[in-house]
Amino acid sequence: LDIGCGWGTLVRHAAKKYGAKATGVTLSVEGAAWCKENNKKDGVDTEILCMDYRDIPKDRKFDKVSSIEMAEHVGLANFQLYLNGVKNLMKDDGIFLIQVAGLRQGSNWEDVA
Q1: Could you give the CA distance from residue 56 to residue 89 in angstroms, rounded to a whole number?
Q2: Which DSSP string do the residues of 70-83 spell out, in sequence order?
Q3: CA-CA distances (angstroms) from residue 46 to 49, 85, 113?
Q4: Which one, 16, 56, 72, 81, has the greatest CB density within 10 A?
C-alpha cells in the first residue's frame, strides 16, 4: 500500500519490476484517473483507490505500507493518529517505510511522541 500515491509511480514500479500486488491510495480524482489509465496502457496491474486512507476498509491488511512525503500533509497535530491508522492497516509482521521531507522549523520528533 502506498498512502498518498500521487501519480502512482511507486506502485507501478513495484508491480512492473517486482511483480508486487500493489495498491495506491490518493485523494486526487485526476491523479487516480491518470494512474489507472497509464497502468492499463503499460499493462501494469495495480489497484488505485481514490479515497482518504482512513476510509480503507478495516478488514484490509497489507504486508508493506509506504508513505512518501505524506507526513507533511498530516501535520504534527495529527501525526500520532496517522501512525496509528497506518499500524491498523498493516499485518502483524508488516513493514512500514516513511519518508518525511520536512516539518515545521524548529520541530523535533519528540513533538509527536
Answers
A1: 8
A2: -HHHH-GGGHHHHH
A3: 10, 22, 34
A4: 56
What integer pLDDT is reported at residue 109 of this predicted model?
A: 57
Between CA 95 and CA 103, with CA 97 as vertex, the angle to 5 degrees is 145
Question: Which amino acid makes up residue 39?
Answer: N
Residue keyed to cell 478488514: 59
Give which of 42, 97, 44 is closest to 71, Cα–Cα. Answer: 97
Digit-coded pLDDT (tens) for 38-68: 999 989 999 999 999 999 998 999 999 999 9
Contact 8, 24 (CB under 8 A): yes
H helices of the chain, where? 9-18, 29-42, 71-74, 79-89
Query: What is the value of pTM for the model shown?
Result: 0.85
